[in-house]
């Protein structure tokens, strides 16, 4: 679970964006193609077969080799890659893609609509061991309706179609059709991959390195770096030391090394892009935590700005909702609460709570308790939990801190299912095209460790149910934005979660690397990069 | 001797089966599970999770899965990783040589330094050299390997830049023996220094114990030269406890050193098993535990057999 939580961060740091060349090529005469670009992965990728990898670290290497129909550019706009253009029907049930006739696989064979049709059969094959194949269950049919045209028909309107199905990796039908399901499930393709993207895999030494070289049949803009290397470095301190010694071209800076950034600045530019990851407290709506006024009081009593300043050393911004600040779906006018213990006390007093034994608040003879649980592996989360606990106890809420392994916290015997008012402190990711259904829709209230969805808080609100359903079915982007603005206002009013902050992550980029830019969800395409 | 070895092997079989049953059971009652990383993940539908559980056989009771695993094992199939899908033996065979190189180097270092050091301090007991080396031994012994590793990395790789920070090879140079040696120095020193300290202390204590024995006095009384007394009688007897310690260390030669491999990015067995523990990759976990148990038994047996050669009083017939 934790790995997924941080997937957004890893993808942002590791991924090499793919695209069509809309962004101008930035190569200059100073480019030295012989210098490799070296990045670090904290774990060996588990699988490079499209759709089969379950780890966040798989994304970077896989994206170098695979070109989807469309991709998201630096301005968060969909841009064609294997597809030159596309249209959708007004009822949102049909999407038609015109494919680039120049597109070829790395074995020299053309990439055709037949490959797309085969890809549909591939991702819906029940014998293959996929984890991430979101959205393909909405696809009713895929047809090649011309030499370069392919058409998807959906069972019902599905707003995230472009971000899930149309941006999935396409597989080579001629190669995959010769492999058995057993071969595909057991990593056979990983040693014989065929690329549609700008690079091909030259060498993969397990737990050591992956080396990529340019794909000779790549149909897009020419790449300027002749060798892309991923080194597997499991320890973040070691990765930082590799940066200091300039063995890595770019890499993340662990928070514990922020005071040593000065040792990097002669050779690196340090950027701190916002991550699509927010930290929050989930109040499980049992007992008094079911009361919106109590949650509002807790929100007022949480010193978010101080947490960002003193615990994160400024590496974050205060969160007031679950949409990435500055993103298309973010509502900048959503009302916010500033830290005010006095206001929190007034709300609780008005709600009928009175001081009792131990200095804590009571109502109907029951103590107001909100124990805070967090993972035992994150020092930052543990520190935040202690600060929040102290702040809440100042207004009379008994809030002891408990730490445990995440598998226990989210397990059958964990605090989720004990029927008590509990709070969970952890980070969660948000997509560029959000789907809040699983977070706040009452259909997704988690009742067991295998329940679908993420409504851990047991939040139930008919208006939110309607909004979240609209959010996945409305095909108009602007209409969806209005829906998500309404969701953010409802979040602030009713507080299914107490939002703490959006994370920033320091990234060191060699001064010799040019053309690299990073936003929340993406970076410039790999062919825009060059090294002098 | 052959009968004794055969008997010990027979005795080991039920022990190994018991070890696998207990570990398989414990693994399965641990919170989480192989699919825990996908739980509540919006990108993984409940139907997909159910399908994955079925495909991986996770819906079966743990004892059914255990017997299936054991049956496969008896047919030479160690299973497949739940995550990469690769055969477990492939995962192990890719990393085992790296672990053997690292552990072998650290063993040579430990033995090559620990033994002479133990002999030296025993022969100069209570001298300033003994006190100084004893202090350094305790210091090295007590030093946590992660801390020691990072300190060495900082000094020799970051500040002085004499040695690489980590990895087995450099991505900037072709693979060569010299490159391998450069990459081996720091991790093998970190791994070996503790053994140098402990083995030298054990050997020192053993020699000082043996040197007081009657047979040493007898050997001297017979007119044997001091060197012969020390090497043939004192040292040979003092080595006996060291053999046991080395025998018990054998599984670590296979299992690698998790912390050192992490810090120095060494692509060995320790990292494989740590990842498998984190991911609840049962087939890989079981392979590691079973091989570790076998090596522990083999190490003990090897130590007992070596005892027979070293000590004529020990007779297994």
Notable traits:
heterodimer, A: 532 residues, alpha+beta, Dipeptide-binding Protein, domain 1, Dipeptide-binding Protein, domain 3, 24 strands, globular, B: 317 residues, mainly alpha, 2 domains
Describe this structure in words.
The complex is a heterodimer of chains A (532) and B (317). Chain A is an alpha+beta fold. Chain A folds into two domains: 5-192 and 506-531, Dipeptide-binding Protein, Domain 1 (Dipeptide-binding Protein, domain 1, Alpha-Beta Complex), CATH 3.90.76.10; 278-302 and 321-377 and 389-500, Dipeptide-binding Protein, Domain 3 (Dipeptide-binding Protein, domain 3). Helices cover 25% and strands 21% of the residues of chain A. Chain A contains 16 helices and 24 strands. Chain A has helices spanning 2-5, 7-14, 59-65, 113-123, 161-164, 173-176, 181-185, 236-244, 292-300, 304-311, 341-350, 379-394, 406-409, 437-440, 462-473, 477-494, and strands at residues 37-41, 70-72, 78-80, 83-88, 94-99, 139-146, 149-154, 199-205, 209-214, 228-232, 250-252, 268-271, 274-283, 316-318, 354-355, 361-363, 366-367, 372-375, 401-404, 423-429, 498-504, 507-510, 513-514, 530-531. In chain A, helix 15 packs antiparallel against helix 16 (477-494). Chain A starts with a helix and ends with a strand. The N and C termini of chain B lie close together (6 Å). By secondary structure, chain B is an all-alpha fold. Chain B folds into two domains: 2-74, no CATH class; 88-310, Orthogonal Bundle (MetI-like fold), CATH 1.10.3720.10. Chains A and B meet through helix 1, strand 10, helix 8 and helix 13 of A and helix 2, helix 4, helix 6 and helix 11 of B.
Topology:
The complex is a heterodimer of chains A (532) and B (317).
Chain A: H1 2-5, H2 7-14, E1 37-41, H3 59-65, E2 70-72, E3 78-80, E4 83-88, E5 94-99, H4 113-123, E6 139-146, E7 149-154, H5 161-164, H6 173-176, H7 181-185, E8 199-205, E9 209-214, E10 228-232, H8 236-244, E11 250-252, E12 268-271, E13 274-283, H9 292-300, H10 304-311, E14 316-318, H11 341-350, E15 354-355, E16 361-363, E17 366-367, E18 372-375, H12 379-394, E19 401-404, H13 406-409, E20 423-429, H14 437-440, H15 462-473, H16 477-494, E21 498-504, E22 507-510, E23 513-514, E24 530-531
Parallel strand pairs in A: 1-10, 18-19, 18-20
Antiparallel strand pairs in A: 2-3, 4-5, 5-7, 6-7, 8-9, 9-10, 11-22, 12-22, 13-20, 13-21, 14-21, 15-16, 16-17, 23-24
Chain B: H1 2-29, H2 46-55, H3 62-74, H4 88-123, H5 128-142, H6 145-159, H7 177-210, H8 214-221, H9 226-255, H10 258-263, H11 269-279, H12 282-310
Helix pairs in contact in B: 1-12, 4-5, 4-7, 4-9, 5-7, 6-7, 7-9, 8-9, 9-12, 11-12
